Amino acid sequence: MSGLEVGRMRIEIVLPRDRMIPDRLRALGRRLLLAARRPPLFALGLLRRQARAPSPARVARILAIRTDRLGDMALTTSALQDLRDHFRSAEITVLAPPGPLELLQGHPAVDRRVVLGDGGLPLDLVGRFDLAIDFTPDEGLRGALLARRSGAPYRAGFAAAGREAFFNLGGPRAGGRHLLDLNRELVIRLGATPRASRTSLFVSPEERGAAQNLLASLGAASPRVVVHPGGFYPSQRWSPEQFGDLIALLTGRTGAACVVVHGPGEERLAARVCASTPDALAAGPQSVRGLMALIASCELFVGNNSGPLHVAGALGIPTVSVMGPTDPARFSPRGPADRIVRHDLPCSPCDRGRCWHHTCLRSVDPAELLSEAEAVLVSLRRREEAR
Fold first, then answer.
1. Which of 101, 153, 188, 200 has its CA 20 to 30 A from that of 264?
2. Overall pTM > 0.85
3. Cβ contact 157:134 at 8 Å
């Protein structure tokens, strides 16, 4: 509290309480922890013997590790395809949590999928691989430790806060660049020449047929727009009521059928969207494969920065996304028809998981997303008419 004298009056100025103090303290603790672990990991790294990138003839089995979420796996698929093109005779195994692993069903770059559980590396994988690659693009140690425990003579991953001590092939420094560019450079460090310019995922004809039947039961005629109001962090989520306003505008202006989807734990978000407008069509609970097929059966994806956003990009579906705290230089979709709505603010992007004012997202008006979505749908219609 401070005072200001104005003539005979004294005005008391009360500054608002900083609601982010707990988050700032946690962030400070994390920075201190990372700083404390660097010296011992650096010393451990001095004991390792650096290796050169192996020739394809020396690599019969590859272990690719992802310990995180759907979007991260979707953004890794171009690197997996580059590995397949370079190590043509190698068997590629992907170790990941169940959800992200489901994305890779039927992917031509993947030979085997192994579920990563709480118990760590399955014993039957130890000593099996010639090359282990951890695609974790941050300071996390779990993927690096899994690569080390695999016993692979060649191990690669990103450098960050000393985690490079567990690899013997030099990798790029994590952070600061788009995930696709980081993965591309990691592949280059392995001696490969990246050729896959786009991420890629695949659904079967049977899965697509089931999705088409669901859309027909909802009365969803073309153009179909899939709307996902979720996001891993609360700070990434645009208001469900704003999504509802957008759906009403899209339906009224373009006649689009807007299908609302959600992931586990996002049921209330989807319900709020559907409660805010009668134009919303609720898809109901979906498996990962079911969600993929629904997205693949629509003409446009609209949502926040989230896993399904990058899944849509990998399926070749145009996207319109709203971004607030997310850094578009690192996580934006890169398809030719992908569009982002965001406002340049002094505090954005901040990459925070929580925020007490949410100005970056609250300032985005549904009319802005409507304009971008209309432009995409018009472009698609013209392309279809030209065929």
1. 200
2. yes
3. yes
Strand 9-13 relative to strand 2-6, pairing? antiparallel
Amino acid at 297: S
Residue 78 in any domain: the answer is yes
Q: Are 98 and 156 in a shared domain?
A: yes
Same domain, 148 and 209: no
Query: Hey, is 259 helix, strand or coil?
Result: strand
Segment-wise mean pLDDT, segments of 10 residues, the chain, 387 residues: 53 58 79 84 79 95 97 97 97 97 98 93 95 95 96 96 92 92 96 92 98 97 97 92 98 97 96 98 97 98 97 98 89 93 85 77 94 95 82
Q: List all residues 6 or more positions away from 131 whose beta carbon is below 8 Å from its beta carbon.
A: 54, 59, 61, 62, 63, 87, 90, 152, 153, 154, 155, 156, 190
Which amino acid, one-letter code, is at 331? Answer: F
- Indicate which CATH number applies to the domain containing 294: 3.40.50.2000
Instruction: Give the whole-angstrom CA distance, residue 225 versus residue 209.
Output: 17
Q: How many domains does the chain have?
A: 2
Structure tokens at 306: 């989230």
Q: Classify 287 as helix, strand or coil.
A: coil
Question: Where in the sequence is the domain holding 365, given as residue range(s)?
Answer: 205-386
Alpha helix locations (H) across 75-128?
A: 77-86, 98-103
- CA gap 373, 379 in Å, rounded: 10
Q: Are residues 78 and 155 in the same domain?
A: yes
